[in-house]
Structures are given as structure tokens and as C-alpha cells.
Sequence to fold (196 residues):
Amino acid sequence: MTILLAILLGALFGIALDRAGATSPNLIIGMLTLRVLHLMKAILLAIGIASVLMFAGQIAGLVEVGHMSVKTAYIGVFFGGLLLGLGWAVSGFCPGTGVASAATGRLDALVFVGGGLAGAAAFMATYEWFEGTWVMAKIAGGNATLGTVPGIDNPALISGLRGDLLGIALGAVFIAAAFALPDRLSGSRVTVVPAE
Fold:
């Protein structure tokens, strides 16, 4: 049942990405070059709403904090982030939008997904070598949070700051930014055409 739910939610997310125009490399490149901010506004709004609902749900006891996991921060994550950003800028796809775009039949997206899978396989094949190097050195204790989150044992970088309230505040800032940003900064026109 869990795998069926994951497939259903993944399909719904892919449809939402397509409807928002995120399967269009032109729109993504427009966002990354700060010419067309339609997609950036959608991303900020989604992150903001999710953050407010999740952290408010934790405070209200509706969301079990124990189900949340804090990912380990290490030096290699920053190198990986740089590679992801470079690949995103060059191809016009990130992993999620690439898969959704490949589902629409775009050949460039299929090549992108194949390259991503090859890169993941290469990392898996060399992981044992990387594991013992400085690339895997933990940063700030590894699993630290910015503020203290009640109900989890992870260390906080700022111990007097409540992480759940910070999450709600940052979510509200993201929502406000989504409404404040214009659709375009330079007057450029990029047509959003979802796949049919």
C-alpha cells in the first residue's frame, strides 16, 4: 500500500509541476537568469505554505516530530549542491522537473534522467573511497538544526531560538515574497506550455 501511495503522490506532484510550467527548460532558465519569476513564485509559495503547515502542525500536536529527519551536513553536500546547480543551469532541469518532463516524452529530459542515474551509480561505486576522506567531514555537528525543535534530540546552532517558530516565520516570509515578486523583471516573455 505504501508504494502505491508513493506512486500516486509522485504522479500528482508531476502533474502539478507540469501545470506550473516546471517541465519547460525555457521557463526554468528564465527563472535562473531572473528574467521570468513565475516558477520562482510558485516554488516560494509551495515551500512557505508547507513550512507554515508543518511547523504549526507540530506545535498543535497534529504532526509527529519523530517522523521528521534532519539530514547530515558535510562538506561533500556543498560540492554536490554546486554540481546540482550547474547541471540545473546547463540543462534547464532539476531532478524532480527532469523526471516529470521525461514523463511528457521530452528526449532532452530522458537524456538528463539517464545522466542523473549514471552519476548516482558512479557515486555509489566510489562511496567507500569518499567515505574516509575530508569530503565526508561533518559540519556543525552533522545533524544540527538552526533552532531548538521540541521533541527531537538534534543539537541546535542557536540554542535559545525555537526552530518551529522560526520555521513558521520563514514560511510566512516565503509566502510574502511569492506575492510581492513580479512575474517578470526584464520584460522577457517565456510562454508556459504544459504538456498535453
